Amino acid sequence: MHLLTIDTGNTRTKAVLFNREGSLVASAVFSENRVQDLTDWLVQFRVDHVIRSITGECAWELADLAIGGLNIDLSHETSLPIKILYTTAHTLGRDRIAGACGAAAMFPGKPCLIVDAGTCVTTDVVNSNGLFLGGNISPGLQMRLQAMHTFTANLPLEVPGWPPYPFGDSTQHALQNGAALGILMEIEGHFHRAQHAFGEVIVVMTGGDGPFLASQLKCPIFAVPELVAHGLFQILDFNVKQLL
User: Fold this and answer.
1) In 18, 129, 170, 187, which residue has its Cα 20 to 30 A from 114's Cα atom?
2) Catalytic choice (64, 73, 95, 124)
């Protein structure tokens, strides 16, 4: 049995195929959100069930893939292996739901702080009982650098970097420190607050800027690049088991 997860974001679509045991079989990334690209790739596999998470826009339906079994478009109404304690569950990002499910499955019975460093930085908490308590959202690395350039008259647009000094000795280094160190301190602050509330806390990091930030973090972390895909698998597997 093969289970397919599809993560459609703002700029790309990522498809990951898992076997019944949760091991990754194959994956592909498509820069354009076209169903034909996905169907051309899937022709080499047998797929029994599929789940899709949409955080951007998508012009095609899951039915277009003609996959038998369960076809789940993830929403706040989808049956989940964790419980969501979020007062606006209908606005909760699908990637945040999936990341929380992935972390809870990887570290059962442990409080987790899930950090997704992408366009925005999200920091979410799942407690030891598998309850999603909520989290915070702030601008991501590129967004911070872009905003400082766009909303001021004279600040240049800089690329991410790690200057040699904690206080920038130039405008370039000041901007780079302000963006990157600001995020580091934010993550470490959330970690210490979670520690105070729960004791031992597992920090799970994912997202495109995760490797860049993880190299400088002072708190112990588990880097899981495919966290959202693993979480989507957990949700799909949870629903498949309900059919058995």
Assistant:
1) 18
2) 95
